[in-house]
């Protein structure tokens, strides 16, 4: 397949050597006359290139598609878009600047820039969430998604299931938003569920900051890790669950075995 640049050169050669008109030369080559006359407009892409170079190191595992989303979110003081670009232009600059993400096997990298998080001083300032793993009597594995308020140390939600993808995490956060409101920030690890696009989009729409800990340093998320340890010792290790419904009913209508606080969200699950 011949590109427009090669066709334009062929039209030029035919016109110069054969003396043909523009119309006949374009018809012979199969090129539209408007394409032949097109003059590329010069653009000042320096600020956009600089912004891409700033974003790429901060989010090394985000490709050009997700960087394009971040660029489209940026607005000026009057509320208009700061960057009038499409994904094709972002991809071109992304490649020209040498920012293409290197694919490496059997090794995972951080998902986002590391931001130190101070201890919370009020409720709903920082939530923290993580997964725990267990299995049913029959050997089928399941997980629980645990959410906790970093200040009150209240277990906001304990959600068990065999599959808890990012979309399920968003649904749970929406339920908690209706009952309790939203936090200023959520502290999580670099699991694929938490780095997914749906969770990132939810956080952006609700103006919630996602703070990712460094890989291999669970102590940076010490609050939920402490909760997970107590939850495993006092609950998971003390019960054999026949099925998921049995796991649900273990907490239904009774205080949490970990915190002693009644959890209406868990008890109301059906």
List keywords for this structure.
11 helices; single chain; 5 strands; 3 domains; disordered C terminus; 270 residues; 13% strand; alpha/beta; Nucleotidyltransferase, domain 5
Short structural summary:
41% of the residues lie in helices and 13% in strands.
Q: Can you offer a commentary on this structure?
A:
The chain is of the alpha/beta class and 270 residues long. The chain has 3 domains: 4-37; 46-96, no CATH class; 126-267, 2-Layer Sandwich (Nucleotidyltransferase, domain 5), CATH 3.30.420. Helices cover 41% and strands 13% of the residues. It is built from 11 helices and 5 strands. The protein has helices spanning 4-18, 22-29, 33-37, 46-58, 64-73, 87-96, 166-180, 197-205, 222-234, 244-251, 264-267, and strands at residues 126-135, 141-149, 155-161, 185-188, 209-212. Helix 1 (4-18) crosses helix 2 (22-29), helix 5 crosses helix 6 (87-96) and helix 7 packs parallel to helix 8. The chain is elongated.
